[in-house]
Amino acid sequence: MSGLVACDAPLAESFDLALVDLDGVAYKGHESIPRAAEGLTGARERGMRLVFVTNNASREPESVAAQLSGLGIATEPAEVMTAAQAAAAVLTTRLAPGAKVLVVGGAGLVTAVQQAGFVVVTSADDAPDAVAQGFAPELAWPQLAEAAYAVQRGAWHVASNLDLSLPTPRGFAPGNGALVGAVQAATGVTPDSAGKPAPTMFRLAVARAGAKRPLVIGDRLDTDLAGARAADYPGLLVLTGVSSARDAVLARPAERPHLIGGDLVSLLEPHPAPAPGPEGWWTTREAAARVVDGRLEVRGWTGVLAARVDVVRSACAAAWDAVDRGNAVDPGSVPDLAVHDG
């Protein structure tokens, strides 16, 4: 199903495992996101287990767990799944233990590759069998050049993720995908990717936890929610990070969330689904939206967070239904629909 779904009970009671993205969901840079700790702590109290799944490959799980714990979200390293760990798992599908891997990335990627049984090298002249590339802020031209030389000589190129941008307190900076793109441009070789939106990390985390009813939680349509669709897991979009409510309304089918919440406290709440009604209106409690002649109309917008989120849900349902029926929706008719003030 490509539309929003209903959940009559709080999400924390309906799913046994939350696969939680980090930046834009649990925190933003080094700062906490309002109500994130409240939502995650409350979810745990209701029996939901948590695994934090991140496309960041530069940090050790211990470092991530320490940061979360410092923000009031008590976390053990075993509750963190990084793109570095996923990349190492991908390497095991083609390489035998003891194979040489040129690591271009941070300490987290080095550790993950070593723990998978591979020998880490730093030069293309060491004849590596593969190049594992992940983001690290200290990466520079010499490391990218070594990766390019190795790939040109036949090494298998595996990227931890292909995120083009990286959110920072100052704005968006080039992400790992931008740096991988430099190597790809130099070699003409398209790398394999372990990170979201590939389903690898989600499936590894679910298998490790032995979960039966996982829920993906993220702030990016193109990685978190596309990954949820790829893994065939329900996905919750929280409107505290990169993708906006307007982005959700205009989302491609492969990136649509199954559920939408204002923030992580939405884990403690039921989630109504919009219902079709007369004159083309899609209604969620007191909120409604429809598409007329390609233009989106909404009603029910107030200053209350829950009501604003209901408008977003209705707007998504109306727009998605129109698109799925073969009709265009004018992006210029879709307002910002910002659910948070400021």
Automatic annotation (TrEMBL):
MF annotations from Gene Ontology: phosphatase activity
InterPro entries assigned: HAD-like_sf, HAD-SF_hydro_IIA, HAD_sf
Entries under Gene3D superfamilies matching the protein: HAD superfamily/HAD-like
Pfam family, one: Hydrolase_like
Keyword Metal-binding: no
Keywords: Hydrolase
Cellular component, GO annotation: cytoplasm
PANTHER family: 4-NITROPHENYLPHOSPHATASE-RELATED (PTHR19288), D-GLYCEROL 3-PHOSPHATE PHOSPHATASE (PTHR19288:SF95)
Protein name: HAD-IIA family hydrolase
Organism of origin: Cellulomonas fimi
